[in-house]
């Protein structure tokens, strides 16, 4: 599933992701994909795809909220990664893992989704203001 969504994502962005590069656009690509894959698999398995230790993937997942709030380009990358991941998972009938107990549960997942939507709406409003676009005209 991860390799299929990676191929679809790379097709969408128009270049191959360099897993060794520290250039910001490659790092953002890896963070977006890691966070889109996280509901389906483990940190270790994601790390194997990128040729990294699982602790790097944990760090990527911790960077997600900061990136969503501060980088419009990351928000687009994450949206594309989510779309590619969802399509790849759906094509082979894989559902996200649901974790209970001290780990994430459905309420936490819903809260994360709602926060992401809120952050994207705030970013949209800021961009519209900067461009002088009236809310009613969109």
Descriptive labels:
138 residues; Chromosomal Replication Initiator Protein Dnaa, Chain: A; 2 domains; 0% strand
Task: Walk me through what this model shows.
- By secondary structure, this protein is an all-alpha fold.
- The chain folds into two domains: 2-97, Orthogonal Bundle (Chromosomal Replication Initiator Protein Dnaa, Chain: A); 98-138, no CATH class.
- The protein is built from six helices and no strands.
- The chain has helices spanning 2-13, 24-37, 43-50, 54-70, 72-91, 106-131.
- The longest helix is centred in the last third of the chain and has 26 residues, at 106-131.
- The radius of gyration is 16 Å and the shape is globular.
- The chain starts with a helix and ends in a 7-residue tail after the last helix.
Our count of domains comes out at 2
CATH topology of the largest domain: Chromosomal Replication Initiator Protein Dnaa, Chain: A
Counting DSSP H or I runs of 4 or more residues, the number of helices is 6
State the low-pLDDT regions, or none.
Answer: none
Amino- and carboxy-terminal Cα gap: 36 Å
List the helices and strands and how they pair.
Elements (H helix, E strand, L loop, with lengths): L1 H12 L10 H14 L5 H8 L3 H17 L1 H20 L14 H26 L7
Helix pairs in contact: 1-5, 2-4, 2-5, 3-4, 4-5
């Amino acid at each position: 599933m991860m390799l299929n969504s990676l191929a679809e994502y790379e097709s969408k962005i128009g270049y191959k992701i360099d897993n060794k590069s520290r250039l910001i656009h490659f790092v953002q690509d890896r963070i977006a994909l890691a966070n889109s894959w996280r509901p389906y698999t483990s940190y270790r398995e994601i790390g194997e795809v990128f040729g990294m230790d699982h602790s790097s993937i944990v760090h990527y997942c911790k960077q997600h909220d900061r990136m969503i709030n501060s980088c419009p380009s990351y928000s687009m990358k994450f949206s594309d990664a989510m779309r590619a991941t969802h399509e790849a998972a759906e094509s082979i009938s894989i559902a996200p893992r649901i974790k209970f107990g001290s780990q994430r549960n459905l309420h936490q997942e819903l809260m994360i989704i709602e926060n992401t939507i809120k952050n994207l709406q705030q970013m949209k409003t800021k961009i519209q203001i900067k461009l002088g676009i009236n809310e009613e005209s969109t």
